[in-house]
Amino acid sequence: MNTSMSHCELSAAKCTPCQGGIPPMPRAEAEKYLGETPGWELRDEATKLKRKFTFPNFMDAMTFAQKVGAMCEQEGHHPDMSMGWGYCTVVFQTHKIDGLHENDFIMAAKVNDLAEHMAPPGRKHS
Length: 126
Known about the structure:
By secondary structure, this protein is an alpha+beta fold. The protein has a domain at about 45-120: Gyrase A, domain 2 (2-Layer Sandwich). Helices cover about 40% and strands about 15% of the residues. The protein has four helices and four strands; from the N terminus they run H-H-E-E-H-E-E-H. The protein starts with 6 loop residues before the first helix and ends in an 8-residue tail after the last helix.
């Protein structure tokens, strides 16, 4: 994990199983990947990746949360999520290493793509 991938490369990549026993991604490397995952922020001393998506109503937020959940289940990499009226917050962290891994950024890019596909024409998610 020496160089970060582009957004297109990240969103096309598949998560690789993390067995643990490796160090979490250093902050400097995470900051490089952050440039390819717009809207996401590093949290908790760069051990988590977080983004809050906003929606015009409850049902859109819930539909998004369900689609994110299904996609994450398929990839085998599960976020912490919270949702309510008009929002869905997604937090990635590789729990086995108590920090960030390339998989977290792969999933962030995939979630961004999902959000873009769900947005009505002319509207981007914040």
